[in-house]
């Protein structure tokens, strides 16, 4: 991987990591709501989004630095993972919390009067373990939507 590309990736992941903390702080203090009043309508989802971004960028910063220190950043195609996986992790974190709150995934949160700390924590973990969560989600989806076959001769029922 070329040095300029490594610098871009490191800068991008750092901005995403620290910027997400900054945005969480601005949400928490109400600064964003003062400048953009519509934020209050989606505030809870933004907490999950930025928590997922923190988790995803933290993991990929760690992976990037680990691979750099071991001299393993030789494949130029790896840049796509460092750029896009943290982005995927943000949306996946929001979806994960929504699935849990809807009852599809069975995790219970304790009620906290001030903030949804449990949900934000789950969003962070989903962002951090994005690919593992996607693998589990894929497995659940296969089990949930699989079709049953009655016999090998019946051509109308096929496994998906």
Task: Write a short abstract of this structure.
The chain is an all-alpha fold and 160 residues long. It is built from six helices and no strands.
Overall shape: flat
Number of strands: 0
Helix content: over 70%
Structural class: mainly alpha
Give the H and E element order: HHHHHH
**Terminal-residue CA separation:** 39 Å
Looking at the chains present, what oligomeric state does this protein adopt?
A: single chain
Q: What about the largest sheet?
A: none
Please characterize this protein's 3D structure.
- With 160 residues, the chain is mainly α.
- The chain has six helices and no strands.
- The protein has helices at residues 3-29, 31-35, 39-69, 79-102, 117-128, 130-145.
- Helix 3 (39-69) packs parallel to helix 5 (117-128).
- The chain is flat.
- The mean pLDDT is 85.
